[in-house]
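Final report, Chapter 2: Outcomes

The project's central promise was a pipeline that accepts a single protein chain and returns its three-dimensional structure in a standardized token representation, suitable for archiving and comparison. That pipeline is now operational. To close this chapter, we reproduce one record exactly as it appears in the project archive, with the input sequence first and the structure output second.
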Amino acid sequence: MWSVLTRGELWRGEIINRRKDGGEYIESTLISPVKQADGQITNYLAIQEDISEKRKAEERIENLAHFDQLTGLPNRTLLNDRFKYALSQAQRSSEQVAVMFLDLDHFKNINDTLGYTLGDQLLMEVAKRIKAALREVDTVSRQGADEFIVILPGTDAAGAAHVATKLVEAVSQPCQIGQHELITTPSIGIAIFPDDAWISRHC
């Protein structure tokens, strides 16, 4: 900012400012140097606008567009983008990518007998467990109902089978929701790029 202003040029941008109460906010700022007739800068004129709410609204729209609202996981749109990126990286580096499809056995019975609210709470817990079992570079996405897709960059069949075992163990642990202790088991299908080999695991 200062390198632009000291050259006598107008600067426009966003800065994080602090209120008197210590709270931070985002400010859109336009600063223009005020010059004398000989070109010497004497002052700076600033026009500022608090755009914190605007940024929050944009973040909410972004979140709605790319994330599942129940679990907070990437949705189908974001999964698509990450899958394309993982494939392009794999092609450049001659690596493999594992893709998993996971769903919960007899999940419909839980919804039908205990209600959708409890079913949603179970899905949120399962989503946390899946995410905790993965690496930072991996992606897990909820596709709807009890269906999840996992992308594992740089992972071969043996690595994918290892991850599948971890996921089965994590998801199958008892889950306490209110007065109910639920035990659910996942079915997992695995495909490896570029081999197109399918491995199925059912528990």
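Archive annotation: Residues 197-203 have pLDDT under 50 and may be disordered.
This record, like all others produced under the grant, will remain available to the consortium after the project formally closes.
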